[in-house]
Write a structure and sequence with these properties.
The protein is of the alpha/beta class and 441 residues long. Helices cover 31% and strands 26% of the residues. It contains 13 helices and 24 strands. It is elongated, with a radius of gyration of 24 Å. The two termini are 34 Å apart.
């Protein structure tokens, strides 16, 4: 539920202050919970080396956030990755070697996709970025004329779709300078998440100190439960009341075992989301991982509250396998995965009366398609386990929707009154033989 919708739904209670107060508190609590859920993946240099395929893979994956690994801070404050310079002397220069990078990052959030958030990671095992940050903050500070401020400002201006910085400090562990650095980053438009695997006292100091200086700047704990952190219990990493996401590697075990572990973390350890390290090759199926994780950590519950489910889709014939209920709307491959539906994994469905389901062979509502109005379909025949995107539409004329089919084109128009409410009347545009006419019903 969005804040706007919460406020609009509050209006009927305004005559009763107690009910209004309780309703608004519950709405705001729900907004917070929905924002905390989700699934993420770290992304290595493979995203640049194998573009544009990797961009499409991520958009179709269903992961709701990605963490780009990584941005290094050199001793002189230059920002680099994989030996290439990103920002130097307050200027973005990455386009000299990676001319598509800024557009590719923007594309990750551009429909069709489920990605809502993009972070950059600083740190990692063997990475000395936070040692350099410590020295630079101690020598120059974090003011507007410092090299750290200027370079990260240049990055934000060149690639504004980056939302946050993920702190994976595994060597520096200097809380005082880390707090100053991330406060500066917040002022530049980057929030912070942390990715600890050890040294809990440092991370507690960072979270407390940062959120004291910039309330809300540190948003989430991504606890590493792999490699050096394989023995971590997520219950022990609830720092500063922040939501905890727990991570596995894609090569740690088979997918089913990792997903089962995430379910256990949610049930027994209060974990609210999950992530995977690391997309750096094509040896694993991101869509299957994300779909399974999104069934555990749903991030689309707000849409289900605002728009009641009208279709239930099943992964097996005869309404068996996993089931996901969807409201009216259009869904790309990535969006279906965000709801928990893997690509080409639907074999039967149930549909409310008055609705039509249209399946498409491609990920973006294009290509060969087929529509059904059946209230129940135990077997989708040739379309079973083939659809990659779909549309669910209401066919009730009283709701202001009419489809007029001609030899060449179908056009729909919704009518609304001045208050933004859908009117019972409707306009119909008919295009036939190149001529357009408008009729008021």
């Amino acid at each position: 539920m969005t804040l706007r919708s919460a406020i609009s739904r509050l209006l009927p209670f305004m005559g009763n202050k107690r009910k209004a107060s309780l309703f608004l508190v519950s709405c705001l609590s729900y907004i917070t919970v929905a924002a905390q859920a989700g699934s993420g993946v770290y992304v290595g240099g493979h995203i640049r080396r194998e573009r544009p395929r990797t961009i499409e893979t991520l958009k179709n994956s269903g992961f709701t956030y990605v963490i780009l690994f990584n941005v290094n801070v050199e001793a002189d404050g230059t920002l680099t990755t994989d030996g290439e310079t990103i920002c130097s002397d307050g200027k973005y220069v990455f386009d000299a070697t990676q001319p598509h990078y800024a557009d590719d990052v923007k594309a990750l959030k551009t429909w069709p996709t489920a990605i809502e958030r993009i972070e950059i990671c600083i740190g990692g095992w063997g990475n000395e970025s936070y040692l350099h940050i410590r020295d630079l903050v101690n020598s120059e500070g974090t003011g507007e004329n410092t090299i750290l401020y200027r370079n990260f400002k240049a990055l934000k201006e060149a690639v504004p779709d980056i939302d946050a910085v993920n702190n994976d400090d595994e060597h520096g562990y200097d809380a005082a300078t880390a707090v100053k650095f991330h406060a500066m980053m917040y002022d530049l438009g980057y929030t912070t998440t942390i990715a600890p695997y050890t040294n809990k006292s440092f991370w507690q100091s960072l979270v407390t100190g940062l959120n004291r200086q910039r309330p809300g700047a540190c948003e989430r704990v991504l606890i590493q439960c792999y490699d050096g952190g394989a023995g971590n219990n997520p219950s022990n990493w609830k720092l500063g009341g922040l939501p905890v996401h727990a991570g596995r590697t894609n090569y740690q075990t088979d997918m089913e075992t990792s997903v089962a572990q995430m379910q256990s973390w949610k049930d027994n350890n209060g974990v609210e989301g999950g992530f995977v390290w690391v997309y750096n090759d094509e040896t694993w199926n991101l869509n299957k991982w994300a779909s399974a994780m999104n069934r555990i950590f749903p991030s689309k519950a707000d849409a289900a509250i605002e728009r009641p489910a009208v279709a239930t889709l099943y992964s097996e014939n005869n309404y068996e396998g996993y089931a996901v209920a969807l409201p009216e709307g259009s869904y790309s491959t990535g969006e279906l995965s965000a709801w928990g539906i893997a690509n080409k994994d639907i074999a039967s469905f149930r549909l409310e009366e008055g609705y039509r389901l249209t399946a498409y062979i491609n990920s973006d509502l294009t290509g060969m398609s087929k529509s059904w109005t059946d209230s129940e379909l135990p077997r989708m025949g040739a379309w079973g386990n083939r659809l990659s995107s779909l549309k669910i539409e209401r066919m009730d004329e009283e709701q202001g929707i009419v489809a007029v089919e001609t030899e060449k084109q179908t056009v729909k128009r919704h009518a609304f009154d001045l208050m933004g409410r859908r009117a019972t009347g409707h306009s119909v545009i008919v295009i036939e033989n190149g001529k357009k006419t408008t009729q008021r019903k």
